[in-house]
Specification:
seven-stranded antiparallel sheet; alpha+beta; metalloprotease; three-stranded mixed sheet; PH-domain like; hydrolase
């Protein structure tokens, strides 16, 4: 590759800050450096580092525990520096299989190497997050209950429940039918006075229904569908799985980036995540799993499964109407419409009713037995359920 070629060079011996100016003669795998006062015969394999520079290249000798490692700088063209680097890599690859593997990677095209690196990182990330799913199996259910209870205290202090005998009876009967046998969770439903058509569950089995959802429901089946969905979130431990994923992601970032572990900021971050993740939206996978599971619950009790679908369809239509009203306000009630729009949007942010999800629900309902329209309570009791918290709603709209 190099036939007794000579290049201008300088040599730092690791002791003096002043380099020796001289020339190098490259022949075979040997580099002969000579200056006016000294001469050094060095094998290319002796150098532990090779770096391309704008003037040529820089080679670093074996590190020394006592002094800085000597450095040889060679001034040459970019093409000649790359040829010398290739020669250096070939000598390194002959040392061992490990060296051969490592330096073969270094020889790769930067673009190919970048793509390969992304694939490796993606693969490691995939198995890392899949492993986080397994972690949940080792966490006792009591942890779900404890986390849920801590959030429930804040919820009960912030919102006033307006349960009635009718709502207690309806949800009590509904839970008896929907909750799977042998469930380790104790479910309880609390109705909150609010026009927001929303519902969410805590990891301890406490489920909150906003009265707006009950007031506007077109049938018992709609509420049963939403209830089954929330029960599925708890049964599938989505809160804990979400928390483990969030904590695992935070830990991974901390390990890669660095800060946060030394001063316990990571633990503080993890605690903050734990206090909020229980009432935040779930991932699309969790929502789909809750949809599938809720349909299974309803079908097992021969309860109509169409309620959940019609409920989300109604929410989508309302959102579209209110969005138009928000863009083109025509009357004095525009402000109230915007409030309702935000309420519906808030619901859809925690229960994303995407077109894809709607199609999934439709296919689930059409397959297997569809269930029959089954009333949990009498029409009279249902009317009482639908009128719950109306005083709050009326006062809220004034």
């Amino acid at each position: 590759m190099f036939q007794n070629q000579t290049f201008t060079s300088r040599y730092f011996d690791g002791v003096s800050a002043v380099p020796e100016e001289g020339t190098v003669l490259i022949h075979g795998q040997t580099i002969d450096f000579s200056s006016r006062d000294t001469a050094h015969k060095l094998g290319i394999s002796q150098f532990t580092e090779f770096t391309l520079t704008h003037k040529g290249c820089k080679l670093v000798l074996l590190p020394d525990e006592v002094r800085e490692s000597p450095v040889l700088e060679i001034f040459c063209s970019k093409e000649e520096a790359k040829k010398l680097e290739s020669l250096w890599i070939q000598t390194k690859k002959t040392k061992s299989k490990t060296h051969a593997f490592f330096y073969s990677i270094r020889e790769m095209n930067p673009l190919v190497l970048g793509i390969l690196s992304i694939l490796i990182v993606a693969t490691i990330g995939f198995f890392y997050f899949k492993g986080l799913e397994l972690v949940t199996h080792f966490i006792p259910i009591s942890m779900d209950k404890s986390l849920g209870e801590s959030v429930q205290l804040k919820m009960d202090a912030q919102f006033e429940a307006c349960n009635t005998k009718a709502t207690d009876r309806f949800f009590s009967e509904a839970l008896k039918r929907i909750v799977p046998k042998g469930s380790p969770h104790q479910f309880q439903v609390s109705v909150i006075g609010s026009t927001i058509p929303n519902a969410f569950a805590l990891s301890n089995g406490k489920i909150y229904f906003f009265s707006g959802l009950l007031n506007d429901a077109k049938s018992q089946e709609e509420v049963l569908g939403v209830l089954a969905h929330e029960v599925a979130h708890v049964e599938k431990r989505h809160h804990m799985r979400n928390l483990v994923k969030a904590g695992g992601t935070s830990l991974a970032i901390s390990l890669v980036v660095g800060p946060g572990l030394g001063n316990m900021e990571f633990l503080e971050t993890f605690t903050e995540i734990g206090s909020t993740i229980l009432v935040l939206k779930f991932s699309r996978d969790f929502e789909t799993e809750a949809d599938i599971t809720s349909i299974e619950y309803l079908k097992s009790q021969n309860i109509s499964t169409s309620g959940l679908l019609t409920f989300f369809q109604r929410m989508q239509e309302l959102e579209k109407e209110m969005t138009k009203s928000e863009k083109n306000p025509k009357d004095a009630n525009a402000k109230d419409d915007q409030v309702v729009t935000k309420s519906i949007t808030d619901f859809l942010s925690t229960h994303p009713a995407t077109d894809e999800r709607m199609k999934t629900l439709e296919s689930l309902i059409q397959s297997g037995k569809k269930g029959s329209i089954k009333k949990i309570v009498s029409d009279k009791t249902w009317k009482e359920v639908q009128s719950v918290c109306l005083d709050f709603k009326n006062s809220d709209s004034k």
